[in-house]
């Protein structure tokens, strides 16, 4: 997983989480070359094509890869209105092993930059295989993404009461919440349903021995 820390490397960073770092380096070299045939395509056409691709496949990794072609494509791919459906995954880490501090710092800065610079108009966001920094992601989403309508946390850990309440409070259009296979505090789910459950149209949870308490909260809503 390649993690970089600069505005110019933001797309490359996210893209590298979904493909090999070797391929990412090859794409970076393309940006530094001279004339590119892609630069003669009208911006309006590029934007329309990019939107079709992003809507059908999700912004990541397709927009990340397109942004490596040339400066014009990077500029178009950075348009916030294209980043409406986003999935961010992390490489699996063996149990008992954590990222070194330098990598952790880069992860934090990268996800903050991604959300603040690219995702103010995101409506559908998914987070997969994150065992740390989940609170950081959710807090940034709540601060920068008021148009969020669907949130999925798959195989994530450390989801707290404050995280979910912040999302509910700052994302009034949220209608779908998927917490399957994630480690979420029971009280977090109950409190969220108690305060914001009435607006949800779709809630997905994994079965557990505590499901009765959660179902009781749903009944109240």
Layout of secondary structure:
Elements: H1 10-16, H2 21-31, H3 43-57, H4 59-66, H5 71-77, E1 85-89, H6 101-118, E2 124-128, H7 134-144, E3 150-154, H8 161-170, E4 176-178, H9 186-196, E5 202-204, H10 211-220
Parallel strand pairs: 1-2, 2-3, 3-4, 4-5
Question: How would you describe the overall organization of this protein?
Answer:
It is a single chain. By secondary structure, the protein is α/β, with parallel strands linked by helices. It has a domain at 123-221: Ribonuclease Inhibitor (Leucine-rich repeat, LRR (right-handed beta-alpha superhelix)), CATH 3.80.10.10. It has 10 helices and 5 strands, in the order H-H-H-H-H-E-H-E-H-E-H-E-H-E-H. It has helices spanning 10-16, 21-31, 43-57, 59-66, 71-77, 101-118, 134-144, 161-170, 186-196, 211-220; strands at residues 85-89, 124-128, 150-154, 176-178, 202-204. A 5-stranded parallel β-sheet has the order 1-2-3-4-5. Strand 2, helix 7 and strand 3 (150-154) form a beta-alpha-beta unit. It is globular and about 60 Å long. 31% of the residues are buried. This is F-box domain-containing protein. Residues 41-86 form the F-box domain. Pfam families: F-box-like.
Please give a quick description of this structure:
The protein is α/β, with parallel strands linked by helices.
State the main characteristics.
LRR_dom_sf; single chain; F-box_dom; disordered N terminus; 10% strand; 5-stranded parallel beta sheet; 221 residues; globular; FBXL6_F-box; F-box domain-containing protein; Leucine-rich repeat, LRR (right-handed beta-alpha superhelix); 49% helix; alpha/beta
């Amino acid at each position: 997983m390649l993690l970089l820390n600069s505005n110019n490397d933001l797309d490359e960073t996210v893209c590298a989480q979904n493909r090999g770092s070797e391929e990412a380096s090859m794409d970076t070299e393309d940006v530094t070359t001279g004339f590119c045939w892609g630069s003669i395509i009208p911006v309006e056409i590029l934007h329309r094509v990019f939107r079709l691709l992003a809507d059908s496949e999700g912004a990541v990794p397709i927009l990340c890869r397109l942004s490596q072609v040339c400066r014009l494509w990077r500029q178009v791919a950075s348009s916030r209105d294209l980043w409406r459906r986003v999935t961010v995954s992390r490489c699996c880490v063996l149990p008992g092993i954590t990222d070194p501090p330098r990598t952790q710092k880069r992860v934090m800065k990268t996800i903050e930059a991604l959300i603040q610079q690219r995702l103010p108009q995101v409506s559908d966001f998914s987070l997969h295989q994150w065992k740390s920094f989940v609170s950081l992601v959710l807090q940034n989403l709540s601060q920068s993404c008021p148009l969020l309508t669907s949130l999925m946390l798959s195989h994530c850990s450390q989801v707290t009461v404050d995280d979910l309440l912040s999302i509910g409070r700052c994302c009034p259009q949220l209608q779908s919440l998927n917490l399957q296979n994630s480690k979420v505090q029971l009280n977090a789910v109950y409190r969220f349903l108690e305060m914001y459950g009435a607006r949800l149209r779709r809630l997905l949870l994994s079965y557990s021995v505590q499901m009765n308490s959660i179902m009781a909260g749903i009944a109240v809503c």
